[in-house]
Amino acid sequence: MKIAFISCFYPYRGGIAQFSDCLTEALREYMAPPPSERDLRIPDIVYVDELYPKDEDDIANQPEAIEVRQFNFKRQYPSILFPGKTQFVEEFNPKKDSLGEDAILDSINPFSWKKTADAVCDWEPDAAIISWWMPFFGPCMGYIAKRLEKEGIFVFSIVHNAIPHESHFFDEKLTKYFLNACTSNVALSHDVYTDLLYLADPQPEELFHPTYVQYGSKVDRHEAEQHLGLPEGDRNIMFFGLIRKYKGLDLLIEAFDLLQDERYHLIIAGEPYGSFDEYQALIDECTYKENIHLFTRYIPDDEVKYFFSAADVAVLPYRDATQSGIMAIAGAFEVPMVVTNVGSLRKYVDDSGAGYVCNSLDPQEIAYYINKIFDEDEEAKERFHENMKYFNDTHSWREFVIQFTEFIFKYQKARRDDLKREEEERLMEEQEQILEDEGFFDYDDQYKPPEEYDDDYDDEDDEDEDDDNSDYNPDDDPFYRL
């Protein structure tokens, strides 16, 4: 099976690129079920061998590898619209290094939209995946989706955010334009699924955000603290990820100041999108401001493990959210979380048993639950870790791919059924036409009401038949008596 994947990938940085690369790798590693098994809807797969005996020469009974081709951006954002320092990972130099031959798409160049659609169609995939996270990409992604659908290619969008965290008046129109051009839209959280029911005509599908495991294993805490230059053995609270207004870092700084305990240390790790002055002013007012450690830069992949190995708790004090990639990282490293009750953050924590949910954006409540994490006994802390291990197993990339490919198979089967039905109807019409041409029946007479046959009815023939039977006596008929 061939799948075209249109998104941003390495060397672009950020959550969307990382998710897309992880999904690509998981799809390539997965062996899809044999075609003969995809349409079965039976609970126990043991019966498959009885229904479809295995034949090594029969391709319908062989597992199928998935071939994925990435179609990357040549230019994702114009520099004037990008709030960060760079769109690329540190080791990539856009002036010297190549993005690759399939980096065709330019978000603001319509000629590149057609070129990308042409390249996908020429490759003849069975399906296409398009990442969706911002209405800015509505025109280019919408054009490509419409073109692929017109060519008979299934288009599945993976929707990270249906409604932006920082909205504009044109967002809804551009989002609807893209979503309605797709075969189906896949949400990564229940909140996004609910948004899709309102925004798009195609019936959406609901999946989950898999756990990120690409950052390696947890390292020794002492090693992690040494690497980051942190004092050893204290209570480490962490805010991780891009610093934007809706992520509520100011609430966490205020909550940290309310703890009033020198054992607590706050780690702030992530690149600010905008001025950091507001946060710096709050830090300067804190009683233990020397216990706040700033890493206000983009954190490369090879350093992520040190931050999550040093942290005792990850805090997500968001004002707005759908799902969060930071939660997927914290879950992988089994770091307990304190989150606010926005988007699907509560559902993630409730399902995983990985921490506590603040019902308000009150810094006092955030401080209370941070303190509660550290006051838990060893049994409760062990329970956190066991819960997260189980949650990670059920939210793996393999499980995501299994469910996602089932959506593709479902639509493939529906299309095959439609084509089969259309072919049967065509053949039926051809047979009826042949019969009509041969004079086997006349459509004009076939549906004639009974009263229209009055003129054709021969009353004299009927009277003659009655006359022939007038002398008949049942008693004289030996067969009648028997």
Quick overview of this protein structure:
With 482 residues, the chain is of the alpha/beta class.
Instruction: Please report the number of helical segments.
Output: 19
**Strand residue percentage:** 5-15%
Q: In which order are the strands of the major sheet placed?
A: 5-4-1-6-7-8-9
- List unreliable stretches of 5+ residues: 40-54
Overall 3D form: elongated
Terminal CA distance? 73 Å
The major beta sheet can be summarized as: 7 strands, parallel
Oligomerization category of the chains in this entry: single chain
Helix content: 40-55%
Radius of gyration, whole Å: 33 Å
Structural class: alpha/beta
Mean model confidence by pLDDT: 84
The tally of beta strands, per DSSP, is 15
Give the helix/strand layout.
Layout: E1 2-6, H1 15-29, E2 31-32, H2 35-38, H3 48-51, E3 64-65, E4 67-75, E5 103-106, H4 110-123, E6 127-132, H5 138-150, E7 154-159, H6 171-179, E8 184-187, H7 190-199, E9 205-206, H8 221-228, E10 235-240, H9 249-259, E11 264-269, H10 277-284, E12 292-295, H11 301-310, E13 313-316, H12 325-332, E14 337-340, H13 345-352, E15 355-358, H14 363-375, H15 378-394, H16 397-437, H17 443-446, H18 459-468, H19 478-481
Parallel strand pairs: 1-4, 1-6, 4-5, 6-7, 7-8, 8-9, 10-11, 10-13, 11-12, 13-14, 14-15
Antiparallel strand pairs: 2-3
Overview of the molecule:
With 482 residues, this protein is of the alpha/beta class. The protein contains 19 helices and 15 strands. It has helices at residues 15-29, 35-38, 48-51, 110-123, 138-150, 171-179, 190-199, 221-228, 249-259, 277-284, 301-310, 325-332, 345-352, 363-375, 378-394, 397-437, 443-446, 459-468, 478-481; strands at 2-6, 31-32, 64-65, 67-75, 103-106, 127-132, 154-159, 184-187, 205-206, 235-240, 264-269, 292-295, 313-316, 337-340, 355-358. The strands form three sheets. The protein has a seven-stranded parallel beta sheet, with helices on both faces. Strands 12-11-10-13-14-15 form a six-stranded parallel beta sheet, sandwiched between helices. Helix 10 (277-284) links the parallel strand 11 and strand 12 (292-295). Helix 4 packs parallel to helix 5, helix 8 crosses helix 11 (301-310) and helix 9 runs parallel beside helix 10 (277-284). The radius of gyration is 33 Å and the shape is elongated. The protein starts with a strand and ends with a helix.
